[in-house]
Amino acid sequence: MNLFAIANQHQTIGGKLARVNWPLLAVVCLIASIGLASLYSVAGGSYSPWGQRHAFRFVACVGMVLAIAMTPLRLWMGLAYPAYAIALLLLAIVPLAGTDALGAKRWLAVGGLTFQPAELMKVALVAMLARYYQWLGSERVSRPLWVALPLLAIVLPVVLTLKQPDLGTAVLFAAVGLSLMFLAGVNILYFIGGIAGGVLAAPIVWSRLHDYQRRRIEVFLDPERDPLGAGYHITQSKIALGSGGLSGKGFMQGTQSQLNFLPEKHTDFIFTTLAEEWGLIGALGLLCVYGVMLTLMIGMALRCKNQFSRLVIAGTGVIIFVYAFINVAMVTGLVPVVGVPLPLLSYGGTSMTTIMFAIGIAMCGYVHRSEQVRRGDIGGWF
Hints:
It is built from 15 helices and three strands. With 382 residues, the chain is mainly alpha-helical. The protein has a three-stranded antiparallel sheet. Helix 3 runs antiparallel to helix 13 (270-302), helix 6 runs antiparallel to helix 14 and helix 8 (167-183) packs antiparallel against helix 14 (307-331).
């Protein structure tokens, strides 16, 4: 078969489906299934109110992933900058017209639909940086001007998110953006200088934190400081983790979750619920599944021949890793409590849709991994 025939075969639906990373999709389905079982358990043996919606959303999102994977890669490259601009505009609108919830404005309501613009920005930021570095070329990535532009694109959503306030998502933006800059080849000296600057600026940052953010850090350092107030979440979480022991109490037998001592058991603290029921063995098993998922994504990125695909896949992997790391570290008391769900496991429509949309674009990059993209192929200045 000649090269033209092979290229033509890859453009057909069947050819593209054959290039989908099915093992990755299988691991994604496994994580979502574990989430469904956990939501069934915390609801007292019922798929209502969380499990049924979780399952329906996930099935719809799997279809979305496959549909996105079949679309031309250049479509997502062309939408990268407009998507970032729209997400940034929506973030700027949140403090003015956002919906109040628990003392923060993080949601926008349009008709009967409520969504978090910060979730849209997670995908838009990755796509925008991936396109930027596809255009820039490796020879200029470490020049000051070309470092300043993506740095500004990262700082803007971080600042707007801190105003909501949402420290957890701001940290996520910074981690994902800086990781992509590093993977694109930016000189490591910039990162060393940034770390040094961050250490020096720590007192200023502390003075500008909101009261509840300072309280979370103080409680993180000493949970007994306010055991029935700010320290309640982490105290109950640690009790649940300890009561699970090595092999757990069994499915639907966790006392902390079943007796409602554990707060947010279906969202931010779902890992604690699982660890109480399945013990250390179950918790480590879940972390290994996430590890397999990230390993598959690293392999996908390494096989791509264009920078956009590599960075979109890597960026999606970084989002999932940072989400999982912060959530698990939070519920185990290694970092202060912030509102970060466990990817594909926690209940939440916006979070799941965002993660699956990102996986869809990453899968599109992998399906088109052999495609060569030149600087002038997309049009526009960048």
